[in-house]
TrEMBL record:
Pfam families: ThuA. This is ThuA domain-containing protein. SUPFAM superfamilies: Class I glutamine amidotransferase-like (SSF52317). InterPro entries: Class_I_gatase-like, ThuA-like. Residues 3-215 form the ThuA-like domain. It comes from Paenibacillus arenilitoris.
Amino acid sequence: MKKALIVWGGWDGHQPKEVAEIFRQVLVGENFEVEVSDTLEAFADAEKLKGLDLIVPVWTMARIEQKLVDNVSAAVQSGVGLAGCHGGMCDAFRENVDWQFMTGGQWVAHPGNDGVEYTVNINYSSSPLTAGIEDFAVRSEQYYLHVDPAVEVLATTRFPLAPGPHSLNKAVDMPVVWTKRWGVGRVYYNSLGHHADIIEIPTVKELMRRGFLWCAEGKSLAAEAGAGAAAYSGMADNQL
């Protein structure tokens, strides 16, 4: 039985408790042993984290002790998967660039705020994470992110739709779903999920389910391959 840790908290506007419960149900349905915590101190035991298969952060707009980021980073570098959505993963700790480097991006804007109707365009490829999934529309926040160019983009959305200072720039396809590697660990992100009802959309929930499984599978595959990676301990000037 694979082990997962869900850690929720931060800004209540993203309904972290409700989203964490949806994720818990998804993982239990996939036969995971799931621990749910509402404190960042859940990241304090470095060795315990390395014994997991998956870490799921659901925590928006907070500050975090550097040691806790280092512990999560080391666990993921060793093969533990990291998967999350919306601000719960890529607007978690705005001051901590190590977290942003690991996760692959950082939210910077949502022009039009909540209620923008936009299309999520699936990038058709050989990835099992999007196999059989069609483009779909959603009414929610449309996330504009600063994104690591190393990520593998699995879905995008077109900007601009809502007016703003960005509108006179050329149209751009902003990543919505991506994967990347951190050491030998797998990282998955989906920018959807402003509220729990967005996560409950069947296509969104299915994308998250596949992301969780893909990330958790990475640990055993890395171990079988005897893979390793140079340790990265972060930057001394990584946060204010």
